[in-house]
Amino acid sequence: MAHKLSIKRVLNASPEEVFAAWTDPQKMKKWLSPENLIVKDAMSENKIGGKYEVAMFDEEKNETHKAVGEIKTYEPNSKLSVSWNWEDMEAPETLLTIELNEVEDGKTEIVLTHSGFPVEEAADEHKKGWESALNNFEKKFN
User: Fold this and answer.
1) What is the pLDDT of residue 72?
2) How many structural domains compose the chain?
């Protein structure tokens, strides 16, 4: 049985701003990693079938971890899903889905679902990472 995680959070940004933060490489570099890492490089070919990459650097361990994948769903300002593979780790491909819903006063509810983990521990570790990355988003874009 595959395991998944789901996070809902209201962000102080419009759906357009949140979607751009996930798809514009310059904006991705500002935040798309857990708080203890730095995004060294990012790339997104913004179309179904396009490639998606995020290279995260851990200064403490002097290691770079690169997530790579393919865009599966691309609905501007509404929904994005990508296959998620760790280039440098032995882990199965998972699916990351971002759904955006506008709420009051230009705020956006984000529903982040990451599925396909072989064990619950992997889902739990990724949930911590995504919660930390969303904290990063709030610090950089609010």
Assistant:
1) 98
2) 1
What token pair was written down for 125? Answer: 């570790």
pLDDT of residue 105: 86
Which residues have a Cβ under 8 Å from the Cβ of 35 and sit 6 or more positions away? 132, 133, 135, 136
* Residues recorded for the chain: 142
CA distance 61 to 40: 15
pLDDT at 47: 98
Residue at token pair 């990351």: 96
Residue span of the structural domain in which 64 resides: 3-141
Give bridge partners of residue 77 from the DSSP assignment.
Answer: none
| Chain segment 12-58, per-residue pLDDT in tens | 999 999 999 999 999 999 999 999 999 999 999 999 999 999 999 99
Type of residue found at 94: T
Place of tokens 């798809």: 23
CATH number reported for the structural domain that contains residue 61 in this entry: 3.30.530.20
